[in-house]
Amino acid sequence: IVLSSQDAARDFASFSPAQAHKARVLPFVAQLPPEVYADDPRWICGHYHLPERFVYLPDQFWQHKNHALVVEALSRLVARRPDITVVCTGNTNDTRAPLHFAELLTQIARLGLRDNFLLLGWVPHAHIFHLMRQALAVLQPSYFEGWSTTVEEAKSLGKTILISDIPVHREQNPPTAHFFDPHDPA
Length: 186
Prior knowledge:
Layout: E1 2-3, H1 6-15, E2 24-25, H2 43-48, E3 55-58, H3 67-77, E4 86-89, H4 100-110, E5 117-121, H5 125-134, E6 137-140, H6 149-157, E7 161-164, H7 167-172, E8 177-180
Parallel strand pairs: 1-2, 3-4, 3-6, 4-5, 6-7, 7-8
């Protein structure tokens, strides 16, 4: 049984102790396409009508990805920094929590953050690298990951990453990480 992290191997051993000896850990590294540096990434701002300065959160809109914490943190920060923008991409459908995305949209509207929390939905995979390159930092607020592709891509690009302090993220050990408590919007 191949798992992506020691953290996942610990979980597997707790769920299936009799099979734990069969587990092997094989973490992956992001493979960036060679053309990722071919263009100045600022074109992506015009393409999606984005400000040139933003923080990028590339995750599915699944409940455990913790976008609600980011919205709450942003609502606190925008009073001091009204120009702060978080740009999000990813699948808006969470089959395990079908109302999650609608609830997130309601939270964004209630807090008056429509201009600060921008939702692009699905974008071509190649655009993710341009968004990451253009971003001031990449944001990964998840409660749980097996081995985060977002973290690996940010590492490969040398981007600063704002990242939830969970065991697998510590295991991934991004050199430019700023860890935060995934339960504390402060």
